[in-house]
Amino acid sequence: IEAAFPDLQHTDIPRIYKEVAVKGITWNSEEVPYLINGSMKYFKVSAFQTLPGNMLAMFTDITGAKKIEQALQQKNEELKLAEEELRESEEKFRIAFKTSPDSVNINRLSDGLYLEINEGFTQLTGYTWEDVQGKTSSEIGIWVDPGDRQRLIDGLRANGKVINMEARFRLKSGEVRTGLMSATIFKLKKEVFVMSVTRDIEEIVQARSKIKESELRFRQLAENIQDVFWLSENDRVLYLNSALER
Q1: pTM of this structure
Q2: What would the 3-class secondary structure string for 38-65 be?
Q3: pLDDT tens for residues 5-59?
Q4: At a CB cut-off of 8 Å and minimum separation 6, what does 117 contact?
Q5: Could you give the 3-state DSSP secondary structure of residue 105?
Q6: Number of C-beta neighbours around residue 38 at 10 A
Q7: How many other C-beta atoms lie within 10 A of the C-beta of residue 225?
Q8: 216, pLDDT greater than 80
Q9: What is the per-residue pLDDT across 59-93, written as a single tens digit (0 to 9) for each?
Q10: Which of 21, 81, 172, 194 could lock 126 by a disulfide, CB 3.0 to 4.6 Å apart?
């Protein structure tokens, strides 16, 4: 046996065969590897004594089944690795989602049902998870103009994302604020959801309005005085009033 299969010299199999032949015991093994013509084969082996000092071994080739088993083990390892990477990715997303200073919320695209909100959402709107759980954005009345939600949906369906859309929101307190929102869609369990990130820009909007009011007052004054008046910068005329034209 050792001469026919040199690789067995470093295993217990020759000793086991000898015990089977001499002692008359029966040996069964579910898996025995043999290197045959440079290729590893696997066999299920049953050995028993035929005459004192003699034994017979029966082999069933299980190489194909072993290769399938090895392939499944490899796939399982790859799956475990992928699951671990997914868990790490989900954890990173969860941390970023929860700790973002901006308002972040996830809603079902079809009806606006809330799936998740972060602390930034609560800080901006005053609504907690208990306030929005099981409700839609329309039910809590967060959109001042329902047409803004439709604009958001139309943009998402057309492009898959919306960048820097201004909209006005009604807070839990009843106060109205302007937000700059960006959103993207994704699928979860065959349903489409929207993840929105909103930043409060009410101060910017108010400042913009005051600038427009100031410009309007300036133009009204400049157009109604009799004095010649103009503005220039580096010899380039920026503005001249009607008195100068006259």
Answers
A1: 0.57
A2: CEEEEEEEEEEECCCCCEEEEEEECHHH
A3: 787 878 888 999 999 999 999 999 988 888 878 888 899 999 999 999 999 999 9
A4: 103, 104, 105, 106, 127, 129, 132
A5: strand
A6: 5
A7: 12
A8: yes
A9: 999 999 889 888 889 998 988 988 888 888 888 77
A10: 172
Q: Is residue 229 a contact partner of residue 243, using CB atoms and an 8 Å limit? A: yes
Tokens representing 168?
């006005």
Place of tokens 């807070």: 171
- Which of these, 181, 101, 115, 117, lies nearest to 149 by C-alpha position? 181
Q: How does DSSP assign 180-238, residue by residue? A: EEEEEEEEETTEEEEEEEEEE-HHHHHHHHHHHHHHHHHHHHHHH-SS--EEEETTEEE
User: Exposed/middle/buried for 125, CB within 10 Å: 0-12, 13-18, 19+?
Assistant: buried
